[in-house]
């Protein structure tokens, strides 16, 4: 089982969007059952149970005896050794009562290398602007995970932007629930 590359199940609160989780993933059944029995939602339970199919790659000295009720260190150790293009990050416990909570985060990890600090900064600014546009216009950019995996594989080819076709949504402004049943919500190719 690869730790990098292919995406696992997506995470989201809207059950309609679960149609895009079109990949079968291996899960740690005991972890999934425990999470479900404690009231965690099925989509999130499956996502976390998928992370627990592997042992962590690294265990830091002194980090085996950690209070899991006050620290997310064990969870982060498992999650940080699964390298997917987007990583959901739950809020860490607040270090002090006067510190503001950090909140939920999403980490975009698609670029493998940037040649300069300027390019790193430019990509960071681009991602911030892109997220603001997506939120402001309520854009729906969802594609099935299988098509996302295909896009990622094609993107690794030399000059892929010129030589490959990528899947992308036809209708970004429509609600996911409004698509015609059975219609493929993606379209291959570039215009």
Automatic annotation (TrEMBL):
One of its GO terms (molecular function) is ATP binding. Pathway: Sulfur metabolism; glutathione biosynthesis; glutathione from L-cysteine and L-glutamate: step 1/2. InterPro entries: GCS, Gln_synth/guanido_kin_cat_dom. Signal peptide: none annotated. The chain crosses the membrane at residues 121-143. GO terms for biological process: glutathione biosynthetic process. Its EC number is 6.3.2.2. The keyword Transmembrane applies. Keywords: ATP-binding, Glutathione biosynthesis, Ligase, Membrane, Nucleotide-binding, Transmembrane, Transmembrane helix. It holds the Pfam family GCS. It catalyses: L-cysteine + L-glutamate + ATP = gamma-L-glutamyl-L-cysteine + ADP + phosphate + H(+). It comes from the Eukaryota. It is an enzyme of class 6 (ligase). Belongs to the glutamate--cysteine ligase type 3 family. This is Glutamate--cysteine ligase. It comes from Nannochloropsis gaditana (strain CCMP526). The lineage of its organism: Eukaryota, Sar, Stramenopiles, Ochrophyta, Eustigmatophyceae.
């Amino acid at each position: 089982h690869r730790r990098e590359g292919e995406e696992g199940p997506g995470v989201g609160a809207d059950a309609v969007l679960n149609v895009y989780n079109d990949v079968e993933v291996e899960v740690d059944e005991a972890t999934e059952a425990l999470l479900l029995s404690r009231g965690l939602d099925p989509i999130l339970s499956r996502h976390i149970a998928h992370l627990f199919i592997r042992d962590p790659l690294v265990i830091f000295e002194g980090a085996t005896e950690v209070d899991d009720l006050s620290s997310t260190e064990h969870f982060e150790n498992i999650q940080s050794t699964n390298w997917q293009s987007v990583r959901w990050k739950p809020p860490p416990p607040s270090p002090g009562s006067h510190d503001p909570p950090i909140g939920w985060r999403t980490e975009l990890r698609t670029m493998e290398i940037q040649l300069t600090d300027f390019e790193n900064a430019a990509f960071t600014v681009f991602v911030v602007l892109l997220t603001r546009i997506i939120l402001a216009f309520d854009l729906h950019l969802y594609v099935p995970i299988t098509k996302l995996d295909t896009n990622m594989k094609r993107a690794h080819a030399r000059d892929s932007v010129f030589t490959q076709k990528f899947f992308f949504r036809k209708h970004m402004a429509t609600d996911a629930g409004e698509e015609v049943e059975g219609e493929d919500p993606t379209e291959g190719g570039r215009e």
